[in-house]
């Protein structure tokens, strides 16, 4: 049984925004997650959307900056936002840079030491966290979708592509689409999987996973600011080309003038919740 410790609780839009901590077996440390529970949960179970944040984030960025709760309340959907990496381990080098280690778990299961024991964010998100949520909150098991931003957008894509029946739908804001080819991604894959182990990288690269995808039909909804300063290393065009080649339906929604920030996310988060609600609430 998982013991949940309540960190904070605030009523909003008729529901409640909570943050909890729990001991994660997968990550070997205490982890926090935020969960918005709409008022419908007072009398019935509802669907759930998992949100994965980007580099330098924790469980609070989405709940404090995106305004997602307004739409979650409207559609009656639980929103779960995990932290982005294990915390407090004090591994050597873990806090040396903002784009690797703490706050930058990249939603992979590391194979390189010293990361391989704890940096297992993929298994945490796709298995342990779902079990914790299903066992402790009024959600309908299996009625779940996933979305995220940047590193977390890539995390959402690989979680869905690697587990075709786990999520009803997937969407991503400004995702890192082809990490093997961009600076942030290369640094993460080299560190967590090994620079010499390039054979492992395609399993953790959304564009490569699309190329080898053989599961049931799955649509990828990619949202991208046209004025994003990181666009040249996010590489949505590589993902879209791979989708065209493999006939995987993909929506690439370009947003003129928008950057990489939560100002951009807040502008369009309602469109994404509405998109997922089509799969979750009908
Ligand atoms: N410090 C960096 C920029 C870091 C950044 O933009 N982080 C994004 C996610 S980027 C990809 O995963 C973010 O969401 N930040 C948190 C926030 O609340 O905005 C730099 O110097 O370039």
TrEMBL record:
Location in the cell: Cytoplasm
GO MF terms, alphabetically ordered: carboxylic ester hydrolase activity; S-formylglutathione hydrolase activity
Pfam families documented for this protein: Esterase (PF00756)
Major place of residence: cytoplasm
Gene3D superfamilies reported in the protein's UniProt record: alpha/beta hydrolase
Residues of the active site: 150, 228, 260
GO CC, alphabetical: cytosol
Domain of life: Eukaryota
Catalysis: reaction(s): S-formylglutathione + H2O = formate + glutathione + H(+)
Transmembrane portions of the chain: none
Cross-referenced SUPFAM superfamilies: alpha/beta-Hydrolases (SSF53474)
Keyword terms: Cytoplasm, Hydrolase, Serine esterase
EC number: 3.1.2.12
Gene Ontology terms describing biological process: formaldehyde catabolic process
Function: Serine hydrolase involved in the detoxification of formaldehyde.
Family stated for the protein in its record: Belongs to the esterase D family.
The protein's name: S-formylglutathione hydrolase
Organism for this UniProt entry: Pyrocoelia pectoralis
Biological classification of the source: Eukaryota, Metazoa, Ecdysozoa, Arthropoda, Hexapoda
